[in-house]
Each structure stands twice: as structure tokens, then as C-alpha cells.
Amino acid sequence: MRSRAAAALADPDLGGDLPARGAFDVGVHLNDEPSAAANARLEVAGPGDAVGIDPRHVVRRVPGDGTSDFEPNLFCAIEFDRPELPWLLTPAAAEPASQRLRPWIVLAVVEETAGVSLEPAQPLPVLRIEAPAAPDGELPDLDESWAWAHAQVLLEDGATQTAAEIARSSPALALSRLLCPRRLRPARPYIACVVPAFDLGARRGLGAGGSGAVARPAWRRGDASVRLPVYLHWRFATGAAGDFETLARRLAVRELPAELGRRTLFAGAGGPGLPEIAAAAGAVVDLGGALVPAGRALGGLDAAVARRLAEALDAATAPDGGDDEEEVRAPRYGSAALAGAAGDPPPWFGQLNRDPAARAAAGLGARAVREHQEELVFGAWSQAGQLGEANERLRGLDLAAAVGGSLRRRHLAPLAVGGAMQAGVRDAVQRRSRAARQPDPRRVRRRSLPQGGQHGGAPQRGARPPRARRRGAQRRHDPA
Question: What's the mean pLDDT in 178-194?
């Protein structure tokens, strides 16, 4: 995810030392000539040319500055508005096969403890790590820095553009992210710092100049002390442990007793109609419980004994229990669920009624239902709730639909489309005419009649004529 001149770099990042600045060749062609009339090699800015990062590039910090209860099982991160920012000054191109490219900055999260300090300095604050603290325990491994710098682009379903094209045309849909792979400890204070990943950037930020021909890692494994300039930083603290991961790590493997999750069942003396088989002949089966230790199989009947018992059970049981006047036979469990079903019963029906262990579990379930049938019926009615009121409303809606359909069939269905429209218009006109003939009491006002009487014609006999108004007299305005 690179743009502008950095996208033209061709020398791959193979994990070793890099040149101080990336470079690429450009040529000038005149009059469509195939060969360049002039060639030049241009250099792009490298990690030693940066003296800081504008905080306005930051769009999010995880956790936020001043957080006091950050979950210790999460990673810290910082996100930038420009998707190419972590690789902007890396003086190389991505390795073609793996597409790995080390960023020129990394996110380091250090614990505020003895030997770790963040000191104000110029041009940048300085992170110092020395004894008794160890840089290997506080700083990430730069050999894996390529894995903790990400670019994110939001793509719509069916989009035909590449991620790079969308990042250039719609910058609001793209961002970059730095992660710190450090596992945090509960209830500890930390400082998150964005620091240079190459020594040229570290020397430039410390005020010693960023000149040099080769860019090497800013620190290596085994260093006794480290001094790094800090481009951006914020402080936070972790909360107490107690998340799901903590609980899961408390789980321990324990050897369980052999009898856990099973009960031995002797199926050789089932009663009338069933054969008597000795336990030594294979008439013992394990009755499994809800929880069975992992890796332990339940013991089953001998194959010959299982076939003998299955035939005897088919003959000794009846679909409805066989409760006639002569004898009462054992039921076939699940028959009610298959009542009225056509064809052969499903496989589970035979497994349930021919396996002694399955029949024992079904019998215990039926016994529990019989013993608690009153409580179960009461619970069912309680769950029904307002079904009666809902059914009453549904019946009212059915009645309204039936009445409406009857009116339509009697009055509207015999009419043609034009007749139905004329009937509707005629009814609307009649309603408006009736409403117009009836006075609206809200519009009736009390008014005085004129001197001419109700007809408003000639003045009544004996009425005094109005006086003539003198010329020049002021006209009186009635405020009413």
C-alpha cells in the first residue's frame, strides 16, 4: 500500500540492512524515441529524514490516553489516516514472494518500572531503557515488525477495484494500523510509544543527525540499554484479570474415576417374554450418563446377544402397550410420535426399542413424566399465557373478514368496474350534499341586523334618515 515515488522502488526488503534512501531510475524520451535521451537516478526520503509525525494523522489509539482499566489480554494499537504511513520512508520494496516489508516506525509498549523512563528532550522526547529493566522484555522484535503493521481498506460486495485503487480514489475508506504484540500484565501502568525502527531515524530524533549510507535496526536482541526518540506517546494502565481467557487458563486436566458417567446394566433377566442370559455370556451393557470422560467408550452387548434380545423385544412389546384384557405388554417408546406416519419407521425407532440401555433411559423419562404430570400440565398452561385473548382477537378478525367478503359479493361483485366507480362517486357526492345542507354550529356567529330590516331593502316606515355629513369632517373608523 504505497503511493507516489515510494511505489517506484524496486529493491526488495530481504530482512537485512537497507540503503539510507531508496532510489529508482527515470528517463526522458524525445519524439517517441524508444531509447531515453537522458537518464537520472532519483532518491526518495528515508527514515533518517524524519524529525517527527504530525499528531493530526492519528485517528484512534487503543486504549485511549489515560485509560485506567484496559483489558490485559488485548493488544495496543494506533491507527493513522494515511494507509501508506507505516511504510512511507522504508527504503525498499516488498519482497516479491512473501510481500513482506518492514515499516520505518513501530509501536512499543513499555511498563513504567525501574529502569524505564520517558525524558523530555529536543527535538523529541527520549525513551530510556536500562538496568534493572531489560530491552528484550520491553521492546518488540524488529525481525517481526512486518507482521504488526497493517493497512485496512473497506471494499463493497462486488467491487472490481483493487485495494490500492480504492485507497487512492476514496481515502476515507482506508487507514493504517500499528500493533504491539506485547502481552500485558494486570494492574500495571504502561507507556505506548511510536519509535523509529531504523538507526538512522533514531540518531536523527536524538539530535545526532541522520546521515549514513546504510539503515540498520534501531536495536537488536541482547542490547543492555537502549535510547530511542519518541514520535508519539500516551499513557494507560491495565485493569484486574478476570476475562474469559483468564478463566479458561484456570481449567486443569484431572483424571476422572472409571465409573463416572456410566452405570452397569444387566440385560439377562428382563422378565416374562425375554430370554435369560448369563452375565458372562455378554448380557452386560453400560448405561451412559449426560457426561462421559473424553476418550472412554461405553461397553455394549455381545453381537449375538444383541440380536437375540432385539428379536425377543419385538415379540414382547406392542405399539400401544398391549393393555388388552388378557395381558399387558411393554410399550414401544416413540410410537405416539409416529402415529399415522406411512412407510417404515425411521432408524431411531428400532434403536430406541431394541437397545436395553436406550429402553432403560426412555423408561426413566416416562416415569418422571408420570410422577410430575400435574406440575408439567400447570407449567404448560402458565406458558400459554394470553393465548385465549389472542385467539379471541383472531376470531374477531375472521368475523370481520367474513362480513366484508359477504358485503362485497352482494353489492360490489355484481357491478362492472364502471358501475362500481359510479356508485362510489355517487355515494361521495350524496354525503357531501347532506353535509353542506346542515349548518356547522362552529361557523354560526351572532350578528346585528342592518337598519333596513331583515330584507335589507328600503328603510322601515318611521325610521330616521341618516344625517348628512359636513364637508371636511373627519371620517370615523370603527375598530370593529
Answer: 96
CA distance 394 to 415: 31
Burial class (CB in 10 A: 0-12, 13-18, 19+), 378: exposed
In percent, how much of the chain has pLDDT > 70?
82
- What per-residue confidence (pLDDT) applies to 457? 46
pLDDT band at 139 (very low <50, low <70, confident <90, very high): very high
List the grid coordinates of 4: 507516489
Check whether 7 has a pLDDT greater than 60.
yes
Q: How confident is the model at residue 353 (pLDDT cuts 50, 70, 90)?
A: confident
Percent share of the chain, pLDDT over 90: 38
3-state SS assignment for residue 144: helix
Report how far residue 132's alpha carbon sits from residue 114's, in angstroms, rounded to the nearest whole number. Answer: 6
User: Dihedral (C-alpha) 198, 199, 203, 209: value to the nearest 10 degrees?
Assistant: -90
Nearest to 168 by CA among 248, 256, 88, 84: 84
C-alpha cell belonging to residue 212: 549514513
User: Torsion angle, CA of 23/29/33/39, rounded to 10 degrees?
Assistant: -40
Cis, peptide link before residue 132, omega less than 30° from 0 = yes
- Kind and range of the H or E element at 150? strand 149-153
Residues whose CB falls within 8 Å of the CB of residue 102, separated by 6 or more in sequence, listed in order: 13, 15, 90, 92, 142, 145, 146, 197
208 φ/ψ sector (left φ>0, alpha ψ -120 to 50, else beta): alpha
367-382: per-residue pLDDT in tens? Answer: 999 999 999 988 888 8
| 110 touches 194 (CB < 8 A) | no
CB 228 within 8 A of CB 125: no
